[in-house]
Amino acid sequence: MADSGQPPDSGDVDWQFDTVAGSAGERRDFRITLGLREGWSRSGRIYDIEQAVRVAHDWMKRRADAGQPFLSGMFTRGEVVYAWPGAGGAGSKGAAGSDREPVAIFTGEALPLYSGDLDDESICALLNDLASEMGRVLGQEDLHLAYKDRAWVLRRVRDKGDGRG
Question: What is the rounded distance in angstroms from the CA atom of residue 88 to the CA atom of residue 93?
Answer without folding.
Answer: 8
